[in-house]
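quick one before i forget lol
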Amino acid sequence: MNTYQPQSSAQATPTLAELPEDAAEHFAGYAVLGLPFSSGHYLAFRDFPVSSVGPGYRSVWHRTPGGEWTIYANAAPEFSCARYFGAAVQHTVETDVDIHWSGPFTAVITVPGLVDWRLQLGTSAATSMLTAMAVRMPETLWRNELVLRATGAFVGPLLNAGRMKVSGVVPNGQTFQAQPRQLWAVTDSQAAILGEDAGKPGPLEVQDHLADFWLPQRGLFGARVGVRFPSTAHPSENASVRAGKKQTA
């Protein structure tokens, strides 16, 4: 049986040539799919060094206890998460986003002066089973909507993460298909956001979502993550304008 570690899997960066050749927009890398805190704060992280639409990027998503979203990214909005989620967030900020691995299961993610986020990762019976299934799943099934809908329906309850979907529509109108092939649980975390302690990890009182993208109610980390956007309802220049109007310094 293969034994996967999040650090080595995350650092096994794919190349642009490995992206599928089709008309969809593609990203590949790894991510903290999401992590809720009992205080009402919520954090997520993306490191997609490979992109079919521009330079790769890193981003941190932050939701305040009042439900206000900010996306911090080290690339312009038209090349990062705001290209797809900008319509649902209150602020987009172009800034440095860093990650440092201090061990195979521990990492620190920082947005300098804004977010300091420490993660401890581990496995569970559910994450190990889903990883074993996902790494063997052929590309054709990752594009099959019936398979993806069924996957989303059972993955959330299995992981005790609330409702989850791996396909649907994002706030800017494009369709998405997410392909997390390796999963780990966040077993512990501490975060300071704008100098405030985010508190202990714990589910939100009401699970949040951005259009069809539901934020998991427990911390999950994914490697060998592919994200495919089969349809682009808004041209890139429109996405840039929509996101750029909300950009702050």
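fyi The mean pLDDT is 91.
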